[in-house]
Amino acid sequence: MPSNNTASSSAAGSSDSSTTRRNSKRPKYSKFTQQELPACKPILTPGWVILTFLVISVIFIPLGVVSLFASQDVVEIVDRYDNDCIPPPSRADKVAYIQGAANKTCTRTIVVPKKMKQPIYVYYELENFYQNHRRYVKSRSDAQLRSVRDENQIEGCKPEDDVNGQPIVPCGLIAWSLFNDTYALSKNNQPLNVSKKGIAWKSDREHKFGKNVFPKNFQMGNITGGGRLIPNVPLSEQEDLIVWMRTAALPTFRKLYGKIETDLQENDTIHVVLENNYNTYSFDGKKKLVLSTTSWLGGKNDFLGIAYLTVGGICFFLALAFTIMYLVKPRRLGDPTYLSWNRVPGGGR
Amino acid sequence: MKRFVYINDDEASKELCCDNRISNTKYNLWNFFPKNLLEQFSRFMNQYFLLIACLQLWSLITPVNPASTWGPLIFIFAVSASKEAWDDYHRYLSDKKANEREVWIVKHGIKKHIQAQDIQVGNIVWLRENDEVPCDLVLLGTSDPQGVCYVETAALDGETDLKTRVIPSACVGIDLELLHKMKGVIECPIPDKDIRRFDANMRLFPPFIDNDVCSLTIKNTLLQSCYLRNTEWACGVSVYTGNQTKLGMCRGVAEPKLTAMDAMIDKLTGAIFVFQIVVVLVLGVAGNVWKDTEARKQWYVQYPEEAPWYELLVIPLRFELLCSIMIPISIKVSLDLVKGLYAKFIEWDVEMVDQETGTASYAANTAISEDLGQVEYILTDKTGTLTDNKMIFRRCCIGGIFYGNENGDALKDTQLLDAITSGSTDVIRFLTVMAICNTVIPVRSKAGEIIYKAQSQDEDALVAAAAKLHMVFVGKNANRLELMFNGVMIRYEVLEILEFTSDRKRMSVVVRDCQNGKIILLSKGADESILPSACAGQQTRTIAEAVEHYAQLGLRTLCLAWRELEEDEYLEWSVKFKEASSVLVDREWRIAEVCQRLEHDLYILGVTAIEDRLQDGVPETIETLRKAGINFWMLTGDKQNTAIQIALSCNFISPEPKGQLLLIDGKSEEDVSRSLERVLLTMRTTTSEPKDVAFVVDGWALEIALKHHRKDFVELAILSRTAICCRVTPSQKAQLVEILKSCDYRTLAIGDGGNDVRMIQQADIGVGISGREGLQAARAADYSIGRFRFLKRLILVHGRYSYNRTAFLSQYSFYKSLLICFIQIFFSFISGVSGTSLFNSVSLMAYNVFYTSVPVLVSVIDKDLSETTVMQHPQILFYCQAGRLLNPSTFAGWFGRSLFHAIVVFVITIHAYAYEKSEMEELGMVALSGCIWLQAFVVAQETNSFTVLQHLSIWGNLVGFYVINFLFSAIPSSGMYTIMFRLCSQPSYWITMFLIVGAGMGPIFALKYYRYTYRPSKINILQQAERMGGPILTLGNIETQPRTIIEKDVSPISIMSTQPKNRSPVYEPLLSESPNAIRRSFGPGTPFEFFQSQSRLSSSSGYTRNCKDN
After folding, report:
1. Domain residues of chain A, as ranges?
2. Cα distances (angstroms) measured from residue B117 to each of A270, B25, B93, B123
3. What is the ipTM of this complex?
4. Closest to B1075 (Cβ–Cβ): which among A5, A19, A201?
5. How far is B43 from chain A (nearest CA, A)?
6. What is the pTM (predicted TM-score) of this model?
7. Most confidently modeled range among A161-175, B42-56, B807-821
8. Residue B832 CB partners (closer than 8 Å, separation 6+)
């Protein structure tokens, strides 16, 4: 082994200066450098822990009840129509029917179970539809939607990017597969106005979809996907498209179709004349029409209430269990008798 | 390989061409980027991240914007590159300063002023007093008529005393004017890094003395970076320049040490990597299956019928990219950062400042603080480490009469003073040896006092004591020594100095008494090297007894001896000595052999006893650290008895009934093997008993044991908690460290002298004491501390905290990365296993870099237990030693926690934000917020002590998360425009957050409480006790005041009834011994005794071979 003496480990040029420096420079005292910042060291005493769990349960259980009530207050009518809207003779081959040219008008009747206060939201619900699919979710061009100048930015839009070299506006799979079932509602034979204004996010209308961007070459390709757009209406006003292009993160999702701005009374009968255009049959996707009021928590969703009750209940149970444990088997904290340093001498391994 | 340097001859030296430009820089302007990048990419982690980043450029597979990986990657690279650049720039500046310094050289007989970088090999360089030597020079002349000059070598070896340098004999008497015209050739070895050796020859050309080869040693050189002191001018010829100087060659990048913790983190990273690959494969296959069965039916996805060849790879690669965040890109940066801070805490610690000298602790290696907390073996040097190395002459025995026995101070012993005044020959000779048999340089200060500059504390003590006894060493003028005895000036001329080496264990000088012209040999050395050379007639029994007696008192002993030489004998020997001094190969050994021929038939004058006090707090420190489960080995060059005495007095071993000492000795292989076996047997049987068993082994037995019974010795090393190894050489110290390391123990070596350097470098952690024996050890070490007792604090406080903090930080880093990764994996199951990312690019990038890195960094000031508690219960260190806080099972806990939290966040998010709310951006942000909230609470729960900083960073980070996202939500072009504003205005968002926190933290909190109360670890118990102020804290107060130590020092320590007092030790090197004196010991205790006989000489060829092996 070579004798590797003295200063070999330090860069000698600077080391002598560091030597003198460290000799002359005493460390300055400060609470931080001495790691002596005043600190609070909480320990888990039974009292605090039981109290914490109790407090959590006391907060969570009422919150759960409130949430549950909020959810219960919401009146929701769900009508699945994908199967029923296919005439029985065609049910053997639904895909052929939906892709055929036959008249797809279908009438549904809904009875309002409870008084519904306005605004009542009309949603369409799709199931087993993967708007979050990697190939799908990326297939759009935000630049193109925003400004007419960028209409050639279609790189991400494949395979619905252009027709004969002309860019499609709006391009991409999402726009191409626009949902195109339509609903015409009537209450007690009076047409019920479904407002389609303001169903999309305001920010989207104003900043994401350009006021001077008009559809171009849309649905002109070899295969037609979903709905068509009105050519001379700017994208910022095509709210169905804007709603559709807010992709859903889950395979089951609802999208706003419109708003009813009148109250619906209990036992009102609503007739829906719908155009069953959209093909969910090739992948067994369900289609539902949803009418729903809303609460402070949103739509009808019992999950939060139940979850809160569960967590609150568990916390309460834990508080109880810890109390019992504490009473039955009290244990002194920091008892020195538990400190046994019985390590085997001789390098205990 | 040799180099021929032609003095003052530009043409002849041209081939050596190397100029004196010093370059310590790693890079230059052009190669910085390629070289630095190449260096960074030599690390596996970086290669991995680069691969990921490159894959992300393929837009088909990238789940998110490539910026989410490139951003952090470039950031991390930029950080370490700019650090490198900064360091390198400073190196460049200091080089530049050194290179552009003006120096005087002689060219074509004319003195010229040039820049230091333009010095060529062969140039004659002139230096003035206090100049720094610009390159390695061979001295040619000095202002001193005798050709002596003094240099300070602090920058080279850290020793602050002055060293003497002399001009080669061939140059003596050359006129100042002629020096300019001097021509000659120096035959020297090719550049090496041995700063203790320069085996060269010089021959001057006519008109100077021809044909006479003059040997050169390190004594004739001025090495780069030394300072010329106390000498008006000196000149020399440059032999090594630039980066080829001894100093330049010594410079080397120390191998980075890897801590056990780093190794564990790497292992866990590997495990995560494997896990990631499995996940990628499973999801990749599932994705392809789903694509073929389901996705083809999803017409809106438009999967083409015809797929390119790489189609099958696309989905697995997408998942690879999605899962790449499993290995946190930030962990290395965070770790480097906190490790730097740990080191700073050590340097800042005012409790580790040596009050006497004001030296703060220093962490040269900032990367291994955690290892301090995992130390299992401490190997310590004795002199200067356990003891003060402040030598005081206490007693002596001259001609069989003990002085200083009554009052413990020979200087005040009237008997001795009487003997001096009466002029007893023995006593005067004794004092003469004390005064001049050394390499001390007396320097007259401005006030007229004489200050001794000594390399060895022992010599200093002896000279100072002699002065007090009226034998004052007044001046040294080249070879002339002046002694003032009772007002009478006595002059001696030094003929030769037979230097000290650790193998010879003695030194001698040959002087001529200027009064009567007699030539005298004066020797001093260890008893085992002096007594065998005693003259036939002398009874050495009393001397040996005196040595024994003093050793038992824990005093360091030296035997002084004397012999008058015949003129012929000296002349004859002197030729041989010169010959030996000019050989290029194995010079040291040859010299030793020649010296041996002179040092015989000595008349033993007596024994000196020098006290070396134990440092303050040594016994307490050792006791505390032993309680902490750390095993101590003492490795010393000292005698067995003194070593054992010291060991006893500093709690190293317990006295008899409790402790047991097992001796391994023997001179032959059989003896050693027998005794080793016996010791092993005892050791095996006593391990079950609560008894302190220690083994004692000396250098010779160790040599044999390591050579022939390595396996047994290793077993012994494992069994034994304590060991005393005496009379070991530096290389044996290093060997012992190696053995313990090979058994997978974490070793810490602590020492103060040059002889400990190898051991310090070898050990996992090297600690140097910046003591009196120079700074050599402190420089080679990873940490340097002022006093031994700081070791306690270094290990128990800094080491332990560092370990705990890094354990948390690293596992937490994995936890947070896994958390977000698990959510992505879950999400892929509801997105058609297609590799969609739930989170947007900005979030993913900011998650690791901003949102989750700040709170955890503050864990560097977290303290689980207060320092006092740890000091009182050092056993708690066991948790760190055994790696209880970072191991696969704790990691599994964090893994499970991240899985659980991922499930909580995911399930709650997709249910709370179902149906009409299931918008992609919103859902992603809700899930991300859930993660951030959980993070904050997890950090809060794992924090043991909340300071302002912790609160600030944990809750401030949470606020910061919202601020950052509000900012992004305000940019219309960003994907998440208005998202955060929308969410924050929804009650359901906040309700969801509370639910996530409640559901995520509740069970973990409950589990922690249950463990804490009903299955507490020792740490928990102490935490509770600390808060409760229970009785534990008043138990066993180990912390002692400095005062009590002195008491202890005085009070007799039981055992060994023969011994009245317990004093601090002992004998070690007379001169600071060179660290490269790594040769094996010459033989058993009495190395040179049969040297005269030829048998020994013939056997020495084996020794020579050994040297080379070494």
Report:
1. 45-74+297-326, 75-293
2. 99, 15, 14, 12
3. 0.91
4. A5
5. 22
6. 0.78
7. B807-821
8. A130, A132, A133, A134, A251, B290, B291, B294, B295, B298
